Amino acid sequence: MTPKSRHHLVIASGVRGDTCRYRTHHLFEQCLLARMPATLSHVMDRHFIDKLKNAGALVLHRAAWDDNIQRAVDIIHDRGGKVIYDTDDLLFDPNAFQWIDSPDFADPVRASLYQEDMRRHQRTIKICDAVMTSTQYLAEQTRSFGLETYNHRNAFSCGIFDQSSQALQKIRPESGEIIIGYASGTPTHNTDFEVSGLALRKIMDEYKHVTLCLVGPVKLGVVWKEYTARILRLPLVPWRKLPSYLSRFDINLAPLVIDNPFAQSKSEIKWMEAALVKVPTIASGTSAFKMAIHSGETGLLASSNTEWQDALGRLVEDKELRQAIGNAAHEEVLTQYSPLMRAEEFHKTLLRVTNWDFQPLETNRERIDRSNIKRACSSLDGSEISRYERIPSLLRMAGYSLRYRGVTTLAKQGWVYFRRLVSPVLPYQKNKESR
Q1: Tens digit of each residue's pLDDT (9 = 90 or more) over 187-203
Q2: Which fold has domain 3-155+338-422?
Q3: Do domains 3-155+338-422 and 158-336 have the same CATH topology?
Q4: DSSP for 300-359?
Q5: Which CATH class is domain 158-336?
Q6: pTM
């Protein structure tokens, strides 16, 4: 292996969507900022294996084991390289399946597929050399595998920084209305949202100028029917449009069921994205949010219904407090969650795992500000990242499943996909609270 290939990294995900974006596209961007030779790919990309022939290290994000993954790991190991398994969820522990709250799993076919994937993820970890996680909680859960474990927290990207900057320039007309918002990317957060539900309804009863804005697939219980006229529903939007949606909020919500291991696994993305547009967040007191938020300064933490109601009341009543917290969160996120910061951190992690002889990268953290981030981002070519937002196609995913999982698994996946298409999305859903 030549020195050039020995010092080359391939970053590949096994999934699509926002989690792939945060953990691989953003990571690739951080490598570019750190001037580390890296290639972005996807495990289902037809050129994935070819790209490994010039690599000395591999990051596998959410890659469930199959023959293709085994072959990739073997290629890297055969030349003395290292493989890092990256995860941002508790999907490697089959025993944790009981804690997932998803309407999808009412379908036994979908449930069995997911549990099979959990076992495959665990198998992938066992053939890797190190683990990288998005939260400290996940890092602690993976240490049982006996591998080196590193917590690489999420960061915003140059793209969302630019879109957030544009959203901040738009002047929002004064209307006297207070918009409390919640954005959900998947239907697995219905129970999480209801952590704040009772407090929200009491606040809406008390303050008639409060409107609730829900972005994405959130299903509400029948107890919300009387508030219909004051609930604004917006569809799930591409990430480039999200900052303009978040900037309409006066208060951003990030509720999670604290005693649920999957909720504890979640990172502080919801706080971070709102902070980029100077919107204050009220979040559940999970370990990740406690690490990110200085309660009362850069956000508010709530761990009980009383705390949620108090926090909501404070922000609804005090415009100056909303602005102060939003501004403080904005400054915090620019310095602590920038791609420049994470580039330095990942550079150090990679050197520890691989023992490559790169010079340590040192960033003057005190000088990280909007202008420095903008200057660094302007030097990047984001075309490779944009191209991988469209990879893999559904057809490619189907072909991959057929080749590496077999016709039975493909048939099950086809059934799940069809069922999602024909299943109606109801505005209200009966739940425990409505009984």
Answers
A1: 667 788 999 999 999 99
A2: Rossmann fold (3.40.50)
A3: yes
A4: EEE-SHHHHHHHHHHHHH-HHHHHHHHHHHHHHHHHHSSHHHHHHHHHHHHHHHH---PP
A5: alpha beta
A6: 0.90
